[in-house]
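Reposting from the mailing list since nobody answered there.

I have sequence plus structure tokens for a pair of proteins and want to know whether others read the tokens the same way I do. The first protein:
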Amino acid sequence: FIRGHIPGSINIPYGSAFTAEGELVQCPSTATLQSFRGRVIVVVGNVSHNTAE
């Protein structure tokens, strides 16, 4: 995550971001994400064309 990261960005791996019920897991990174509620959030990835899905 550190190499080539966007300044101010946070890393929330999709595979561990949600509970079995589909709720966002509570952790420091998701708290940061929640603080930006109502703002534009950009998802960037380099693994596949469907990173944000």
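The second protein, same order (residues first, tokens after):
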Amino acid sequence: MYMRKSYIIAVISIFVLFLSFGIARAASEYNITSKLGGTIGDYFDLDGTLIVNSIKVGTQGVGGVIFFNGTIVNNTTDTDRNDNPVTFGDNVRVDGRIFRGAVAGAGLDDDMPFIVNDDMKVAGDLAVDGNLTGDVSADNVLISDDNSIATQKASYIDSDTLGEALENEIAINIPDLLNGTWNITNKTTDDVYENTKGVITFDTNHKGTLDSGRFAALGAISELEDDPIYDHVTSKITLDFINNNTVYYTYTSESADESATSEVSGVAFVFANSRNKVIMVGMGGSGTFVMRLSEFTPEE
């Protein structure tokens, strides 16, 4: 009798164990579609809020889709009552565009730019259709292609914008640069030109009119100076560039008493480290035979 009772208890225990195991497996894979009166592919409309601890969409190799016709938010706060962010615990792939506000695009009325509130590293190319604004600070900056601009710590381009730096500091073609009106500041020990100034205007053919003052590097004095001793220029000053830094010049001068004219010619050297300053060095024309320097700056 005891053996029979033990046998019955054992059978019942095994049955309960298998029943429990079956229920557990059924709970993890239970399909409720038919229970809700639907079939595969049906949509279920929940008129309320569904609260679950977790949700899994799709399977390995197949995937799945969640459709949102609204906004994802984290409705919890930290200890200071600040909103907690929505957290993505894995890599995020976005097949569409990312933007902030109701409308995408720059310069629109909603004025809500997309903000990255942290450091950002771009592993690929960065293409910008608009402008890069704001201050840029870095120990090492390299912008390179066929032409390179590099700064290393203390080195920098002193300019408000990179475009201005490219315009002012790089690959200056002096013959093309000279077109326009320039103020002249003369530096020399020649007392005819020492501490003097002038104004000259060049046209696109490199012909210059000495509007006023003196041009020490070429030994030229404007007619307006009315110098009682030295010759003055009566024609345009023609520059013939041999290369970017060497120029052959010619002009006509007239004696102070207007009794004779002469053709003046010579060679001068031209340098420019920016579009805002050109240096010309020579020693011909009127004056003593010493080296003279004329510094050009654009007329404001």
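Reply #1 (J.P.):
I read it the same way you do. Residues 140-169 form one domain.
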